[in-house]
């Protein structure tokens, strides 16, 4: 049997392929401008996020982007066993 014989099969296949398409590589600030929404409960200015409204955050946001050359480092600090105990 051919998939074309089923009603709606081509639309399902198209949607399936579209869903498997990777998202475009965006900086965090670009993603926020496209998809960010501020709620009226949590923001004095509800609606679409605009990085231009808070330009001082753009560099920070972009440093967290996949294409940023900055590497995040994590460290562990060992404390003495009796730290803070008397």
Protein model, in words:
The protein is mainly α. The chain has a domain at 25-67. It has 3 helices and 2 strands; from the N terminus they run ααββα. It has helices at residues 9-20, 28-35, 58-63; strands at 37-38, 47-48. Strand 1 (37-38) and strand 2 (47-48) form a beta hairpin. The protein is extended, with a radius of gyration of 23 Å. It comes from Nitrosomonas communis. This is Phage terminase large subunit (GpA).
Topology:
Blueprint: H1 9-20, H2 28-35, E1 37-38, E2 47-48, H3 58-63
Antiparallel strand pairs: 1-2
Quick take:
By secondary structure, the protein is mainly α. The protein has three helices and two strands, in the order ααββα.
SSE string = HHEEH
Number of helices: 3
Rounded mean pLDDT score: 86
The radius of gyration over CA amounts to 23 Å
Strand percentage lies at under 5%
Annotation, overall tally of beta strands: 2
Strand order of the largest sheet: 1-2
SS content category = mainly alpha
Helical content band: 25-40%
| Stretches with pLDDT under 50, minimum 5 residues | none
Distance between the termini: 78 Å
Organism: Nitrosomonas communis
Protein name: Phage terminase large subunit (GpA)
């Amino acid at each position: 049997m051919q998939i074309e014989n089923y009603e709606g099969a081509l639309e399902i296949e198209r949607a399936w392929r579209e869903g498997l398409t990777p998202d475009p590589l965006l900086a965090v600030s670009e993603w926020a401008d496209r998809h960010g929404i501020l709620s009226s409960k949590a923001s004095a200015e509800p609606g679409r996020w605009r990085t231009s409204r808070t330009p001082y955050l753009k560099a920070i946001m972009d440093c967290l982007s996949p294409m940023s050359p900055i590497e995040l480092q994590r460290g562990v600090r060992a404390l003495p066993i009796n730290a803070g105990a008397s």
